Amino acid sequence: MEETTIKKLMTSAKCSSCGQRYEADNIEVIGHQGDLWFMSVFCMACRAHYLIVAIVGEETAEETVTDLSVAELEKFQNADGLKIDEVLDMHSFLKEFDGDFSQLFNGRKA
After folding, report:
1. SS3 for 101?
2. What is the 8-class DSSP label of residue 95?
């Protein structure tokens, strides 16, 4: 990973003193050992200065754990997204729903 990428990632971090985000110009990469990066950061807002040690590795895709069959996975991967009318219908339903799942699923009161 390159220093410019590390600096870009660090601009999303906030100063622990004032909560202001760090600016790329105020982040100095001191060095790294594998995925372990050492940086000096300076907050322009409150003038705090910190030494940061971060583990930054390459992102890897994790395996999806599911109980769906291969056919079900393919069906849902190729399905269209939700339509606005479906969202509005669910909103209306939930607005009136009293929380009685027994009646909802069985069609009768428990």
Report:
1. helix
2. H
On whether both 85 and 46 belong to a single domain, the answer is no
Q: Residues 64-79: pLDDT tens digits?
A: 678 888 888 888 887 8
- Domain span including residue 84: 70-106
d(CA 48, CA 17) in angstroms, rounded, equals 7
Whether the per-residue pLDDT at 15 is higher than 60: the answer is yes
Does residue 74 sit in the same domain as residue 40?
no
- pLDDT confidence bin for 110, thresholds 50/70/90: very low
The domain tally of the chain equals 2
Query: How far apart are the C-alpha atoms of 29 and 32, rounded to whole Å?
Result: 8
Task: Tell me the three state secondary structure of residue 36.
Answer: strand
The more confident residue out of 85 and 56 is 85
- The separation between CA 14 and the C-alpha centre of its own chain, rounded to angstroms, equals 16
Residues 49 and 79 in one domain: no
